[in-house]
Amino acid sequence: MILITGASGKTGSEVARQLAAAEVPFSAMVRSREKGEPFEAMGADVVIGDMSDEDFLQRALAGIEKAVLIMPNGEQQQAMEMRFTDLAVEAGVQHLVYLSSIESVPENLNPITQMHVAVEKHIRQSGINWTIIRPSFFMQMFLGAAKGIRERGELVFPAGNGTVATTDLRDVGEVIRLVLTEPGHENQSYDLTGPELLTLDECAERISRVIGREVRYVDQPMAEFADRLRSINMSDWRTQAVCKEFEAISRGIIDHTTDTVSELLGRPPISLEQCIEDHLELFQS
Q1: H or E element at residue 132
Q2: DSSP secondary structure letters along 158-169
Q3: 2-135+168-193+256-266: what fold?
Q4: Alpha-carbon distances of 153 from 57, 70, 78, 277, 282, rounded to whole Å
Q5: What is the pLDDT of residues 23-59, one digit of tens each?
Q6: Do 168 and 194 contact (CB within 8 A), yes or no?
């Protein structure tokens, strides 16, 4: 049996969707009965509890062969992910798949990426078979910005002239499904990107071409961006960490693409244009 943590998040739910489509049994870890309902509809087992509860984790890991460790970014993330890894080892889990990020390198001092660096090291030293999935900037960030694009023709982020290798969550979900269902991916780290390295000005141009009207990139001042995050009840810690992520992007931390998606899936990665086309209704009045 496969266990997915963070199943109700964007990446976790995509992994669940792809496993269900492939008729692969899995168990979804969620925090409430309501969040578990979509996975019950898929035919999955649902376990309800909190990642900070060690007794709950021990019960959830009983009988699990493979686990996918995905957590929302937060101040206690590193400690909880390390504890989960240790409990997975104790429970006899044979393979742990961990969602990290391509920006997670020692020289990047962002709190989120530094946590990923520490957790990656802990997993590698734990003795468990592991696969680390390290995607780049998700194209779905632009779907979240659809309202501003639709109403004002603006793509607003504080990324300066930095570049992003936009990656579609569907590619990431498919790679994780492959890793879970085919042999040969143990003790591998996969850096996943889309096909192009683009500035956000270039992203706006590509979105413009797909939706048929002009979209311009607005380089938002970081203080305004922080206020925007707080307005949706993001914690101060996470607000500061996300701002530092965008500061790193503006400095050029994402500076290359990889062929990993093509090599693993046998097809090109989904392009930004295709992602926007597939969700065109979000951008229409």
Answers
A1: strand 129-135
A2: S-TT-EE--B-H
A3: Rossmann fold (3.40.50)
A4: 46, 33, 38, 17, 13
A5: 999 999 998 888 889 998 998 999 999 898 999 999 9
A6: yes
